[in-house]
Amino acid sequence: MSTVASRIRKLARDNKISAEPDRMGLMAMTITSLAGDSVKLDGVERLLVSLKKSGVLSTSEILRLQSSYLVEKAKAKAKSNAKHANSSRSGRSATA
């Protein structure tokens, strides 16, 4: 099964798009930081921005993909947290 992240990476690779910010992107990150805002995009989100800037994706496509990606990312984090909690509990009961 293909994940949303892998589909985004493939779309970027097929279109020779990089996650590296351009000069305008770097300036925007600097201004955001100076304003005291904390916006941290991961590599997949930076790919989405680059795909939009290059015209590969429309606004509605990027919003749909980002929404799906964030849901997928949240589910993976919840699953990881649950696994970690279960292993911590089993470790405590074994030493008690």
Q: Main beta sheet: strand number and arrangement?
A: none
The low-confidence runs, each spanning 5 or more residues with pLDDT under 50, are: none
Give the overall silhouette.
Answer: extended
- The helix-strand sequence is HHHH
Quote the beta fraction. Answer: under 5%
The count of strands amounts to 0
Helix percent band: over 70%
Output mean pLDDT: 84
Total number of helical segments?
4
Tell me what you see in this structure.
The chain has 96 residues and is mainly alpha-helical. Helices cover 74% and strands 0% of the residues. Helix 3 runs antiparallel to helix 4 (59-95).
Put the structure in a nutshell.
The chain has 96 residues and is mainly α. The chain has helices spanning 4-14, 23-34, 43-53, 59-95.
Keywords, separated by commas or semicolons:
96 residues, extended
Q: What is the topology?
A:
Layout: H1 4-14, H2 23-34, H3 43-53, H4 59-95
Helix pairs in contact: 1-3, 3-4
